[in-house]
Each structure stands twice: as structure tokens, then as C-alpha cells.
Write a structure and sequence with these properties.
CATH class of one domain: Alpha Beta
Protein name: Transmembrane protein 53
Oligomer: single chain
Number of helices: 13
Largest sheet: 8 strands, mixed
Mean pLDDT: 75
CATH architecture of one domain: 3-Layer(aba) Sandwich
Shape: elongated
Strand content: 15-25%
InterPro entries: AB_hydrolase_fold (IPR029058), DUF829_TMEM53 (IPR008547)
Helix content: 40-55%
Low-confidence stretches: 315-327, 387-407
């Protein structure tokens, strides 16, 4: 369980085997006893429940609502990474304003600074249904006063007069403080709710003509807008029911409508989205393979270009042939030049000078340039064979030479 200044987030029910997850967005107008009855209903239908019970100020401070939204999404991601399953959002009263609209804004990538949208892409693909109960409520400058004087607030624990006085004083102050900001918040609020159409999930809206906090005219306008955007919307009008009292007054009709939505979300919508997820996964693998092949091809091209630059350097005795044109030269011209170079090598074979450093290293001697004036004298034998000794004769010893050989 997580609890902060903006509200609390916890698991209402979490079993080992379930068909999906219902995310409950409530506000202070939703009492704990009512909240437990909804959690039990979802559990009886085989669904787990993640509860986001927003505080009173979350409906007035977008920062608090955004903080709650991120925590809800992160909690969902932990479960969906283990096993993807259908997710249904259920908003009660002003819970649509206190948190749900911010979840839509983050998932729809329309919020400024939400750079981590790809991390919540899995949540977006798993959302398979949306339900509004006594919601959405319209955002006006007297929002706080209207709820403070309503029975849902007065019935909270504590002396009714004290609770009414405190709630009315705080809400009136907030209404006066945020009078200039309500219009911009209101426009963004409805925009976020309308953006949920992109999730391609069916809607169930439970309302009543006798609900003063969520007027029937507002509900009808919202429904018509969703339908114009291509959404599948079912509206359940329960006459004579009070705000968030529809399930209590009409348990059978309410349970049947909710069971139909959850069944459609699990069997039809999520199955279609699961197939799309599989196609995206296969497409991602194909893109990785294609990218690897392109990298290998680019590496091969770069290697060939490097070899061409080396072969075109001065003093090279080899060349690369190519079927492509390189600076206007064809493969036939390169072949002709290679043949001419080979012919020159045959006619003028390379030689090594004996007097060069390489020659001395190969022959391990220093070959004299001038051998004139050297005598070869056979003065003995080695193993029966004569061997010669040589020395350089000076002009004064020319007469003593027995034999003179001139190389």
C-alpha cells in the first residue's frame, strides 16, 4: 500500500488466478463501505482490483493527481510484465478528475515532460474497457462547494455540522483561489477524457437523471462526443438513483452491465490487442534482423572502399577489380592496366644489388666493387682437394707471383 498527500493506492483484491485487473479511481465522496462492495463485485466475477483512493485536494492540484497516476501505472506495470492481462478502468464521482484523467494524459503522450511514454505502452495496449459510475463530473468554480454541501461529504464520520463547516470553508477558499485556473484545467480535463478513445476500448456509463453532482445532461454530452470519435459506448440510466448509489439501488442491473463489460474486455478486446502485441513483437524481431544485415552490408562496403584506397596508393603491385564504375573507370580499363603492369614485371624482373644493405644481409658478406689486383694461390689441399688463398699484391711483389688470375 502506498499513501501520500494526494491519496492512497493499494490492492483491494489480488488472487493467483484472475481474468484481469479493475483499476478503481475513487474520491472522498466514495466511502470505504461502498468501495468494499465494488471490490467484492469484481472479485466475484474473477477480477483483481487495484484501488486509487484520491484525496480531496487531488481534484484541485494537478501535481498531486499526476503523482497518483504515475504510481498507479508503475504498480500496473509490475503485474503486466509478469503476465499481460486485460485492464479495465472504473471511475467513481470526481475520481475521474482526481487521477484518471492524468493516467489518460500520460498514456496518450499528451502531457508535457512525459518522456518515458514507451515504458507505459504495455499498459495502453492492455486497457480493454472503461467504466464511469456517477462520473465524469463537470469542473466548475463551485466544485468544492457543491460537494461540501452534498450528503456524500456530510455522511462521513464526525459531527455533521462541523464536517460541513470545515469542508465548505476549505472548498470555498479553493474555489476563490483557483477561479482563474479552473477554465484551463477544465479544458485539459475533458481533452484527456476524450483522448481515451485511442485505446479502442468499450465504455460503460452508469448514471441517473436525479444525480445533481453528475448531471444527466453532462453525461449525455460526453457520451455523444465519444460516439462521434468512434467509441463503443453503452449508457445505463437508472432513474431515481442517487450519486454513487446505483449499485445499491439496482444491484441486478448494475451487476449484469458490469459483467457484460468485463466479459467483452477479456474475450474480445484483449484477445484482439494480444494478437496485435504478438505481431509487434515479431515485427520488432524482424527489424532487428534487418538492421543487423544492413550493418553487415555497410561494413562490407567500407572494407572494399578501404582496400580500393590502399590499392590506388603509389608503389602498389596489385589492384582490385570491380564491376562498378569508380571515377569514370570501368572494370575493363582496370584489367588492361593490371595486364600491362604484369608484362612490365616480366620484362624487367626486380633485382637486388649485392652492395646494398639488403644484399649484405642476404649474402652475409661485403662484396668488393673492384677485384682487380687480387691473386688466387693454391697453397695446399683439404681432404685431397686443393684450396685457394688470396691476397692483394702490391706493385713491389708482382715478380714473386706464381700465377695471376684476373676476374
Amino acid at each position: 500500500m502506498w499513501s501520500g498527500g494526494g491519496g492512497s493506492v493499494y490492492w483491494g483484491s489480488k488472487g493467483g488466478e484472475s481474468r484481469g485487473i479493475v483499476v478503481v479511481f475513487g474520491w472522498v465522496s466514495l466511502q470505504e463501505s461502498q468501495l468494499r462492495s465494488f471490490v467484492e463485485l469484481y472479485s466475484s466475477l474473477g477480477w483483481n482490483s487495484l484501488v486509487c483512493h484520491a484525496g480531496f485536494l487531488s481534484a484541485f492540484y494537478p501535481e498531486k493527481a499526476t503523482s497518483l497516476a504515475f504510481f498507479v501505472l508503475n504498480e500496473l506495470l509490475e503485474e503486466l510484465h509478469i503476465k499481460p492481462c486485460p485492464v479495465v478502468f472504473a471511475a467513481f464521482s470526481a475520481g475521474s478528475k482526481a487521477c484518471m484523467c492524468k493516467v489518460f494524459q500520460i498514456v496518450d503522450r499528451s502531457g508535457k515532460g512525459h518522456l518515458n511514454w514507451d515504458a507505459y505502452r504495455l499498459v495502453r495496449n492492455c486497457v480493454s474497457g472503461v467504466m464511469f459510475d456517477s462520473s465524469p463530473v463537470d469542473i466548475t468554480h463551485d466544485l468544492g462547494s457543491r460537494f461540501a454541501l452534498h450528503g456524500s461529504i456530510l455522511s462521513r464520520p464526525g459531527p455533521s455540522k462541523v464536517v460541513s463547516w470545515i469542508a465548505k470553508g476549505v472548498s470555498s477558499g479553493l474555489d476563490a483561489l483557483y477561479l482563474t485556473k479552473f477554465e484551463s484545467q477544465r479544458a485539459q480535463y475533458w481533452k484527456n477524457l476524450h483522448s481515451s478513445v485511442c485505446m479502442e476500448a468499450p465504455y460503460l456509463i452508469v448514471c441517473s437523471e436525479d444525480d445533481s453532482l453528475a448531471p444527466y445532461e453532462t453525461i449525455c454530452t460526453f457520451t455523444q462526443t465519444l460516439q462521434n470519435l468512434g467509441a463503443d459506448v453503452k449508457i445505463l440510466n437508472l432513474s431515481g438513483s442517487s450519486h454513487i448509489g446505483h449499485y445499491k439501488n439496482y444491484p441486478i442491473q448494475y451487476s449484469d452491465a458490469m459483467a457484460t463489460l468485463l466479459e467483452t474486455a477479456a474475450s474480445t478486446v484483449f484477445s484482439r490487442k494480444l494478437q496485435r502485441l504478438e505481431e509487434e513483437r515479431l515485427e520488432g524481431q524482424h527489424d532487428e534482423i534487418s538492421e543487423l544485415i544492413c550493418d553487415l552490408q555497410n561494413a562490407a562496403v567500407n572494407s572494399n572502399q578501404c582496400l580500393r584506397r590502399v590499392s590506388s596508393g603509389p608503389g602498389d603491385s596489385f589492384s582490385l577489380t570491380s564491376s562498378t564504375h569508380d571515377n569514370g573507370r570501368t572494370s575493363e580499363d582496370e584489367h588492361r592496366e593490371a595486364s600491362s603492369s604484369n608484362l612490365n614485371l616480366l620484362q624487367n624482373p626486380p633485382t637486388i644489388s649485392a652492395h646494398s644493405i639488403l644484399g649484405q644481409m642476404l649474402y652475409d658478406v661485403c662484396v668488393p666493387k673492384n677485384v682487380e689486383g687480387w691473386d688466387i694461390k693454391f697453397s695446399g689441399s683439404l681432404n685431397g682437394q686443393p684450396y685457394a688463398s688470396s691476397r692483394k699484391l702490391s706493385p713491389s711483389h708482382n715478380s714473386k707471383c706464381l700465377r695471376r688470375s684476373r676476374l
